Amino acid sequence: MSRNQSQPIFGSKPINTNQRGQWGSKLGFILAAAGSAIGLGNIWRFPIEAANNGGAAFLLVYLVCFILIGLPVMLAELCIGRFSQKNPIGAFRQALPRSFWWLVGALSVLTGLVILSYYSVVAGWTLGYVVKSIAHTFQSGIPPDQIRSVFGEFTGDWLTQIGLHLVFMLLCVLVVVGGVRSGIERWSKILMPTLFLMLLMLMLRSITLPGSSEGLRFYLYPDFSKIDLRTIVAALGQTFFSMSLGMGAMITYGSYLSKRDNLVSSTVWIGSMDTAIAFLSGLIILPALAVIGHTPGVEEGGAGLIFQVLPKVFTEMPWQPIGGIVFAAAFFFLLLVAGVTSGVSLLEVVTSYLIDERGWSRKKSVWTVGGTGFLIGIPSALGCGAVGWFSALIEIDGAILNFMDLMHTIFGRLSLTIGALLTCLSIGWIWGIGKAKEEIMHGYPGFGTLGKIWSFLLRFLCPLAITVILIFLLVDPSAIR
Ligand code: TRP
What we know:
Strands 1-2 form a two-stranded antiparallel ribbon. It has 18 helices and 2 strands. It has helices at 26-37, 40-52, 56-84, 88-95, 102-134, 144-156, 158-177, 180-207, 213-220, 229-242, 249-254, 263-291, 305-315, 322-358, 362-382, 388-391, 403-441, 449-475, and strands spanning 394-396, 399-401. Helix 1 crosses helix 14 (322-358), helix 3 (56-84) packs antiparallel against helix 12 and helix 7 runs antiparallel to helix 15 (362-382). The model is unreliable at 1-17 (pLDDT under 50). The relative contact order is 0.19. It is globular and about 65 Å long. By secondary structure, it is an all-alpha fold. The structure holds tryptophan. Tryptophan is lined by residues 36-37, 39-42, 115, 241-242, 244, 247, 249, 342, 345-346, 416.
């Protein structure tokens, strides 16, 4: 980590309103940004994607996407955020005045609101599972089918679904109302290290379960013949979602940084932590899937996969039943925590827009965004079994999508990909790579050779690769699932 790791940012450039705030230390910022990146996307989504897209083949393509596309785009977002010290709309307006580029920011704000709405529903499930674990719903010897039906009944109960969604949204609101430093940053510093430790322990248990080796092999030995367009589309989409890119979250978090901070080392830290946690989650879920008899890559896993798989691992913990109860409750609690630090960043993007551009107070902004996100999330909450119509909205390529799947496909996938493309183009070509490099050199004067590589990736490779993927998607929309 760089020299100014715990340097306070006091005395940096004055900020436009006292509602905005700034990070207290570099470590605090990195943990908060890692908190945004590390979330349900890593633990809930990544293993599902890997299971459905060839295991190790997916992992490999993901790593390539992460290094060649994820890292450069993240650096670009942090860069324009710190340059402008503004929300995504304000940032594009400031960098490219009198143009239509602010619309990229507008798309970001809308996307953030919609992702928040369904993210809150899934995060609410983790809260429900904390309660179920404490109530000892999953006793040793419980057959996998029964674990599945517990999940089905749970998501089919509309009151529970709405209630948990509401509680999660409230948690995020309460953190964000506290502001950048004493809300978001303070909580991330406590919660992120704990999460990491828990995951490590769980991974050790999962890979030593009898019968887990088939899952491990599937995850770690690449079969290159499995790499096809679908794998690449899935991996790229997952990269953006997992790293919180393509919708201004990193622009917003970067806007609370001072000129003294080294954006490059921050990017590498945040990105590596995110990828490490996703990798770890795969090491937990895929062996566990093999243990309960899923044939990897054959059975499709839906949104509920981890809720149907992990309870089995917990019943195999030592010192039953206490070991199982404590571990399960602690795990789902930490998943909830990872969800909160991510939900918070989604909420903060929209909030920062209302504070900067509309001049609202933080309090009014946060409650408005939280309330709207809650309302938009209701169909997602009801669409996993409680209300039939929302639960089977459309069919793509033989797969039935519910409301949440549809929102994730449009906003969590397509919109992020488009957002990332436009970010590359606007920063690399229109605003100008020279200005961007100059901004990065504050805090990292040695950005010479690395700067050349970054410039090539951001201006040529990233836009080209993302465009090719988007064109393929138009030709074969089924690949997006
Ligand atoms: N990255 C988070 C996760 O992996 C989700 C998230 C938070 C996100 N903020 C975002 C996704 C911004 C896209 C854009 O769970």
